[in-house]
């Protein structure tokens, strides 16, 4: 900015006192101070807005770079998946001339598989963790109804006497 020393300010003050006069000088000085403050605030606002615009532009560039990188990664993954699917299909078709996908499973086989799935799913989706079941004596494996009856059936031996 302007380099104003004490001597230059004194000269400006003496000239203003002579030109403006002693009655109007306080009003003019007050007005000059308010204008100077407004100018400083305006410059500060302009500087902050310019810096915000620069940061916003940097963020836009960064977002574009990230989107480009994500798009290239997505294309690479899709390409590798399609190559893997093609390899599996070729291997499936070339495997010893048998077409395993065309043999329909029997009804008994499907029923057995469904029963096994339901039994395993019950164990898998239980709400309590295995360590909690073990600690509190809760069932950890699915057992059949006949096995449970046999386990809890009273024995044929008379109870032992403590006397």
From TrEMBL:
This is Sec-independent protein translocase protein TatB. Its main location: membrane. InterPro entries: TatA/B/E, TatB. The Tat system comprises two distinct complexes: a TatABC complex, containing multiple copies of TatA, TatB and TatC subunits, and a separate TatA complex, containing only TatA subunits. Substrates initially bind to the TatABC complex, which probably triggers association of the separate TatA complex to form the active translocon. Keywords: Cell inner membrane, Cell membrane, Coiled coil, Membrane, Protein transport, Translocation, Transmembrane, Transmembrane helix, Transport. It is found in: Cell membrane; Membrane. The gene is tatB. It comes from Pseudoduganella aquatica. Part of the twin-arginine translocation (Tat) system that transports large folded proteins containing a characteristic twin-arginine motif in their signal peptide across membranes. Together with TatC, TatB is part of a receptor directly interacting with Tat signal peptides. TatB may form an oligomeric binding site that transiently accommodates folded Tat precursor proteins before their translocation. The keyword Protein transport applies. Residues 52-79 form a coiled coil. The keyword Cell membrane applies.
């Amino acid at each position: 900015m302007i380099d104003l020393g004490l001597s230059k300010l004194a000269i400006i003050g003496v000239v203003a006192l002579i030109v403006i006069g002693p009655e109007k000088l306080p009003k003019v000085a007050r007005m000059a101070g308010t204008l100077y403050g407004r100018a400083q605030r305006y410059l500060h606002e302009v500087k902050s807005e310019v810096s915000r615009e620069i940061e916003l532009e940097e963020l836009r560039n960064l977002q574009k770079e990230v989107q480009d990188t994500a798009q290239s990664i997505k294309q690479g993954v899709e390409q590798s998946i399609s190559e893997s699917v093609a390899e599996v299909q070729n291997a499936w078709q070339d495997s010893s001339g048998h077409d395993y996908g065309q043999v329909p499973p029997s009804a008994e086989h499907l029923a057995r598989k469904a029963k096994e799935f339901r039994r395993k799913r019950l164990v898998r989706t239980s709400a309590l963790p295995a360590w909690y079941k073990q600690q509190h004596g809760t069932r950890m494996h699915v057992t059949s109804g006949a096995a449970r009856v046999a386990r809890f059936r009273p024995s044929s031996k008379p109870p032992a006497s403590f006397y």
